[in-house]
Amino acid sequence: MSTRFIAALSLSLVWTSVAQGQAPSPEAALQFRPSQKDVEYEAVAVADVKKCRVELETLESKGDKRFGFAVFDANGQILRRYLDLNGDRYIDVWRYYKNGVETYRDIDTNFNQKIDQCRWLNSGGSRWGLDKDEDGKIDSWKQISAEEASRVAVNSMIAGDAQLFATVMITKDDCDDLGISPDIAVEMLRQVQEPAAAIRTVMSGQKELTSASKWTRLDASMPGLIPVDDGKAKFDITVYENAMAFVETAGKHGIVQVGEMVKVGDVWKLTQVPKPVAGGVVQVASGGLLMRPSAQGPVIANELSPRMQDLLKALQELEKSAPTTAAKSAATQKYHADRKRLIRDLIQESKPGDQRDLWTQQLINQLMTEVQFGDTTGIKGLEELENSIRQQSPKSPLIAYTAFRRGFAEYSLSMQGAKEPKAQQAANDAWLKWLEQFVKSYPESSDAIDATIQLAVNSELSGDTKAAVKWYDALSERKDNEAARERGKGALRRLDSVGKKFNLNGADINGKPLDIAAFKGKATLVVFWSMGSHEFAEDLPVLKGLLEQYKPRGFEILGVCLDDDPKQIANFIKENKVPWDSVHDAPNSKNPWSLHYAIPSPLHYFLIDPSGNVMANTITVNDLKDRLARQPDKK
Questions:
Q1: How much is the pLDDT for 303?
Q2: Measuring CA to CA, which residue among 194, 206, 203, 205 is closest to residue 325?
């Protein structure tokens, strides 16, 4: 329904009744629809429309009457609320609810009868979209979380919506706002230009994403801070290094490699085009630029020779004319050949040590990029470069850096050639064996951390707990990376928790002490939850029902809220009528319980027995229903 039709409808069917002091009919009030498709709100069956009731709401503000009306279902639960904020008899705010909680609103901020802002709220998320030309399509975001940015990216790829896809991809203005160095910005923008062509390229020839696919969640380690003195930007920047999104297609789960994400103000942006992962095996995103290890700090121009300055200028000019994903192969091959030649010249002109290592690293990345574009000669180039570095500097960290990218390049090629499921599985198995050998050969390298995480996560997802424990244990012993070490320790603690005492204590958002020990004698579900989790929004009504049904038989729920803002959490709890207490596990605290147990997602359940020991360290709502149904009555 267009915004023009909405405006006409609001005048002819609604405000005429309101002006006469009469509530519009439920049929008229419920004809409105959100301007955006990706909205979860209460739908009303045709047979139930007449059972709804509409109530007028008159608001007084500085002497001016503002009108509104709300729609309720037969049980008295609110479904919609509409407001005229400036008294011109047109609707200015359309508010939509689910389970009695507002999840979305359309807003006409300039009172011209056209929607120009869209906001997702409470359990619906935290997106705030701007429709500047008022054509019903989001042009940009005032606010969007990393989770929701990945959701928009994946869903827009599935729908083939290049305009919406572009709203969550990094832009030149973003790079300018962050002060990202020109050489990184040029390469980054090259990866995300031509959104329509990028979507076609990724979606063609793959089977993982279909029209039936649904984004379920984002998975990433904690975000990293790149300080200004790293020389990559003029300001500190916050980055997710290797994020991945989980999708569900006809009951089967899959993974989409999201890669690097960067925070621009209150908006998270992707710096790479997401790619579905064949066979569900997590890969290392090879195109991330911001978190690539630096061989040195920023290069100061006056430290470079005139020849190097000329070469660097030539390289920057070349990158400005980088071909798009839609360019012909000949143009792409020429660009890569010219870029590789300039980098080799820079290596020859640079001084031995950090400066030369920096450009050698750039050459490694260039060869890797060529392989991704289908040039198999890049594999040979990486092999030759690896051998050359090994001969000249046997202890150079670039040996492991080159080997890892060579291995990933070989894996990428094998997956491109694997058309049948058996061939894909064989390629995945070979990749995992290669990763295991890499960790053994280069245990101290930074890439060994990524390799170990891949091995651990894949083992856990495939149900091989013994292997997962092995790899998480290796992470827990990393002395050079605190984040990896704590993630490993937490995962081991979680996986080994069944039958052991569950520790949890802290304070709620009001500072009230909470301790799991107070629940002794009762079967207790511990819910790690986030306001932005759509799974939590779906499970919440079920959990409320289970608590009401089984509380008399000795069942309780204790929450652990993973969000930051106590005020927003308090509003969410009140509006959603969450009936249990929650420990406030703020991410910025020194020792959050979510890190203590390495909680893998924004919604995770533990089931604790009456003696305080863990019965299950992961459980679904359906499993919980079955367990509670078998629970004997409390005597």
A1: 52
A2: 194
Rounded Cα–Cα distance for residues 580 and 218 (Å): 26
Residue 129, classed as helix, strand or coil, is strand
Residue 587, pLDDT score: 62
SS3 string, 286-308, reads CCCCCCCCCCCCCCCHHHCCHHH
pLDDT per position as a tens digit, 120-131: 998 888 999 999
* Dist. CA 272–CA 257, nearest whole Å: 9
What torsion, rounded to 10 degrees, do the Cα atoms 329, 332, 337, 342 define? 170
Check: CB of residue 245 under 8 Å from CB of residue 168: no
Q: Please check the confidence at residue 548 and state whether its pLDDT lies above 90.
A: yes
> What does the pLDDT look like over 324-353, one tens digit per residue?
655 567 888 888 889 899 989 988 888 787
Domains belonging to the chain, first-starting first, are 3-143 (no CATH), 162-287 (no CATH), 505-630 (3.40.30.10)
Q: Does residue 73 contact residue 100 with C-beta atoms inside 8 Å?
A: no
502-505 contacts at long range (C-beta below 8 A, 24 or more positions apart): 502/526, 502/606, 502/608, 502/612, 502/613, 502/614, 503/596, 504/558, 504/560, 504/583, 504/593, 505/583
* Residue keyed to tokens 């060869």: 367
Phi and psi, residue 462, nearest 5°:
-85, 0
Report angle CA 157, 162, 165 to the nearest 5 degrees. Answer: 65
214: nearest Cα among 445, 447, 632, 538:
538
Q: Which tokens go with 229?
A: 């003195």
Q: Could you tell me where the beta strands, DSSP code E, fall in 46-100?
A: 53-61, 64-72, 78-84, 93-98
**H or E segment at 571?**
helix 566-576
Which stretches does DSSP call E strand in 315-421? none
Q: How confident is the model at residue 511, as a pLDDT? A: 85
- Give the DSSP letter of residue 90: S
pLDDT at position 237, please? Answer: 92
Amino acid identity for residue 589 in this structure = S
> Which of 455, 449, 482 is closest to 468 using CA atoms?
455
pLDDT tens digit sequence for 23-35? 788 988 898 899 9
**Structure-token pair, residue 371:** 């392989």
Q: What is the pTM of this model?
A: 0.53
| Residues 320, 464: Cα–Cα separation, whole Å | 47
Nearest CA to 261 out of 282, 289, 283 is that of 289
The predicted structure's pLDDT at residue 267: 95
Q: What is the DSSP track for 257-270?
A: EEEEEEEETTEEEE
User: What is the per-residue pLDDT for 304?
Assistant: 64
Q: Is the pLDDT of residue 431 over 70?
A: yes
Alpha carbons 222 and 482: distance in angstroms, whole number: 11
**pLDDT tens digits, one per residue of 157-213:** 988 888 999 999 999 899 989 988 887 887 788 777 777 777 887 887 677 888 888
Quote the radius of gyration of the chain (alpha carbons, Å).
28
Between CA 468 and CA 455 the distance in angstroms is 7
Give the Cβ contact number of residue 47 at 10 Å.
7
